[in-house]
Design goal:
Layout (H helix, E strand, L loop, with lengths): L2 E6 L6 H7 L2 E3 L2 E4 L2 E4 L6 H9 L4 E3 L4 H11 L5 E5 L8 H12 L4 E3 L6 H16 L4 H10 L4 E6 L4 H5 L5 H9 L3 E6 L4 E7 L2 H17 L3 H5 L3 E7 L3 H14 L5 E6 L2 H7 L4 E7 L2
Parallel strand pairs: 1-2, 1-6, 6-7, 11-12
Antiparallel strand pairs: 3-4, 3-5, 8-9, 8-13, 9-10, 11-13
Length: 288
Amino acid sequence: MKTAIVTDSNSGITQSMARHAGVYVVPMPVLIDGEQYFEDISLTQEEFYAKLRSDAQVSTSQPSAFDVGELWTKLLREYDKIIHIPMSSGLSETCRTLTHFAETEFSGRVYVIDNQRISITMRQSVDDALNMLADGKTAEEVRDFLMQTKLQSSIYIMVDTLKYLKKGGRLTPAVAAIGTLLRIKPVLQIQGEKLDQFAKVRKLADAKATMINAVKHDLETRFAQLRADGKMTLAIAHTQNREEAETFKSELQAAFPDVPFTYVDPLSLSVSCHIGPGALAVGATVKY
C-alpha cells in the first residue's frame, strides 16, 4: 500500500523542498489589491513583504477545493491513500472544507488531518508522517498518531509592530496607537487553536526571555514526560528576521541542551499577513 503526503505552504515547506522530500505542497493563495497570487509559485517572500509594507490591500484566502480535488485524483492513480495535513482549523476554514470534501468524495482514501498545527509545528507533522511511512506504518496509523498528539505542541510569537494586527482588525485603532506609543512588543501564543495574547513587553531581550520561560514551563509541566523520553523538539520561525532568529537559536540551545533542534524557517504568509515583518517565534513540538 502506497501513501502520499500532502500539505500546504503554511508548513514552511517550499516547492523545491517538497520535491526533494517526496511530498506535495498546495500553495496558499494571497490576495494583493484584489489580484490572486500563490505562495512560492507566483509570489516570493520578498515580494510579499514589499507589498505588505506599502499601502496595498493584502489578505489570504483558501485554496480551491476543486484544485485540491484534482490533485487528490491525480495522486490516487499512483497511491492507494493520501494523508493531507492542512493548517489548523482554528486559523482557517480550509481544514473544515477539505475534511468535508474528503469524507464525501474520497471516503476511505483521503484523510485530512486537523492536528491543530501551523508553520514549524505543522512541518514537524509532515516529517513525522514521512518517518512513520518509512517505518512501514499504514495511513491509518499515521492518521491516528497525528490526531492523538495534536495538542502536544506550543508556539510563542513576538510581534515587532502592532500595525498589521490593527490592519487585520485584531486590535482597535486606539489600542494600537497606545501600544505603538509605548513601544509594546506583544508575545502571542498558539496552543492548538487561535492566535491569542500571551504577554506584553517593550524590549526584544524581554520578549525572548518571556518565550524561553514559557517553553521552559511547558517542558517542565505538560511535556515533562515527553521530554524525558526524548520526544520533544524545538524550532524557530521568523518574518524577515533571519539574523535574530539564528541568535535566538543559540540561546534556546543553551537553555535546553537536551532537546533536539530542528528548523529555522520563515513564518507562513497566512500568519505573516497579520503580524508583519520582524517577528520571532519558537515552537516546542512532540516528534514521532
